[in-house]
Amino acid sequence: MRIEVKLTGALYDRIMHDLVRPHPFAAERVGFAFARIGSLADHGKLILLNRYHSIPDQQYIDDPAVGARIGSEAMTWAMQAVYHGRAAREGIFHIHLHGHNGETGMSKVDTNEIPRLIPGFQSVGREAAHGIIILSRDHGSAWVWLPGGREAVRAGCLSVSGVPVGVFVRRISE
To answer: What is the mean pLDDT of the chain?
Structure first.
């Protein structure tokens, strides 16, 4: 299934500005992007990122074994943000930056740790898509769990609308 993730240039700039800020002890920053799901003409899915939440410094846990670890307070906030009111159909996307250029993917730690968050996200946003977005300095990759899905689908495209337009297309090796 074809999946595309889109966000505005203004939201992308806000996310990047946040993720490059130094933290007192964590090696990287983490945030949550919130999204709505739509349909593409070919029965694919469109994920529209619409807002971003920066994790406050005090909600990080000092764990030198990983680039960044956030505590339960940050997770609870994100889950409550989609559980209540107007956001009931919004999905939660864990987002962070790998500080290099070019296409990026999940590190071994990312692969082992971040997907464990998805069932909690799904428990409060059953009708939404949830996932993981990892950005590099000039590219991005996304993994999406569709409503009710147990496995991630890697997005084929992550695009930033604005001037200039950025389209990060995943290279598919055969």
So the answer is: 90
